[in-house]
Amino acid sequence: MDLLGAAGERPVFEHAGRAVSGEELLGMVRRAAGCLRRHGVGPGDGVAMLLGVGPEAFAAITAAHTVGARVVGVRPGLPERGRSRLLRDTGVTVTDRAGGPDAARPGLVLPLGELLSAPDDGRRPRVAGRPRDVARLLHTSGSTGVPKACAQTYAAMTAAWALRPDAWPPAIRELAGRMDRFLVFGTLASQVMMEYGLLALAAGGTLVTADPPDLPGAIVRHRATASVITVPRLVKLVADQRASPADLSSLRALMVSGSPLEPGRLREAADVLGPVVFHGYGQTETGMISMATPSDVPGSLGVPPVELEVRDGSGRPVPPGTDGELFVRTPSQSTGYWREPGLTAGVFAGGWVRTRDLGRLDAGGRLWLTGRTRDVIIVNAEVHYAGPVERLLAGHPAVAEAYVVAVPDAGTGEAVHAFVVPAAGAVPRLDELRALVAGELGGACAPTRLTLIDEVPLTPAGKPDKRRLTALRDRSGGPSPRGPGRIRHGDQRP
């Protein structure tokens, strides 16, 4: 509210052809907070937010925090099982989605228009959030199962870096200087979208909504200087720019989120788009852990500005240059998974968060990711991580993207099945890729099957969806499916 008040008449949102000033947005917050209070919503009450990215959605979320509620955001496209799990323990739903199953949810359902139609008394609302109360439940992507709800307290949310310029690490300070016009899309239930949106506002920028969020078209139409992008969409943007360049002269920052970016693809993006790629690493459980700027060594994630330890299988820290599992401690980390004590105990312990990611710190303190502890293929009872195989395959000149999953094998238990998006004009061959992997990582890691696909299927959070790849694997001998992940040339086998 201080930030919006200081903005005054300066536009802080551009949405649906209109500009909304800081003072106008602050007025929306006052009206929404007043409406929630009249309905009895206060500290500790659960409020579900089924909203998009417009200024009204931003005001509703801010108002719910103002009255001290426990805010639960739900992104569009989430399966019903995951939605029901996230919305348990919420008695109030605020929505801008007409009809649908949520209109009949138990408890009070407030249309967004009704929430903002309350009178504005012009007085600063009383902030009721208590430090130890849960401020929001942030849902994980669900890429390994049903999304989990990470509980972040008001104290942790206050300690986050986005709204505190004095706490910005160097990489964030550099990024903030490029966020004059930040392109937002999808939903503010996305932790990434909301955090970068707050950063843009704190830096004096404007949030510009895009519908549809097509790239590069949305950047051109809105003269955007910054946006968030996943690795598959970055690869596609680079290919589109090579084929038919659009005027991206306004663009100064693309924040890659969701999955690692192979160094070769980063160099290619820099060649085509210029020095605009920032590669962030973080988790829903922790918030930001580290970020690489365009000047960082390709493949590294910069120097983490948080406490980070690389540990071996026994839980002991390892020296620089040694791979291990990453454990972190951040000011804004969650306290655990909401109503999931068993899951919490496996991840949150002693003030540290077990990321289940593998990586190393080099002698200069830079972070390098090497895989995930759960993304494995077990060949002849030996565990092999998918990450190194994928990065090696993605470095082949005929490959734009590569993803591997386990496939049952009568002789070895499991084997590697590679799904590859070919580079423009190329047709990767299984024998070449097998030789590449076998020469670097050993024959057990070499793919036994190769499927060429047009694009990787994505989760609702924009991450590569390996469960859908596994399903595609199981039917890859049949007709080619439609949509993302469709098979281009069928299976290659030895």
UniProtKB/TrEMBL annotation:
Transmembrane segments: none annotated. The keyword Nucleus does not apply. CDD domains: AFD_class_I. One of its GO terms (molecular function) is acid-thiol ligase activity. Residues 389-463 form the AMP-binding enzyme C-terminal domain. Residues 9-338 form the AMP-dependent synthetase/ligase domain. Residues 458-494 are annotated as: Disordered. It holds the Pfam family AMP-binding_C. Coiled coil: none annotated. PROSITE patterns: AMP_BINDING. SUPFAM superfamilies: Acetyl-CoA synthetase-like (SSF56801). Residues 463-476 have a biased composition (Basic and acidic residues). This is Long-chain fatty acid--CoA ligase.
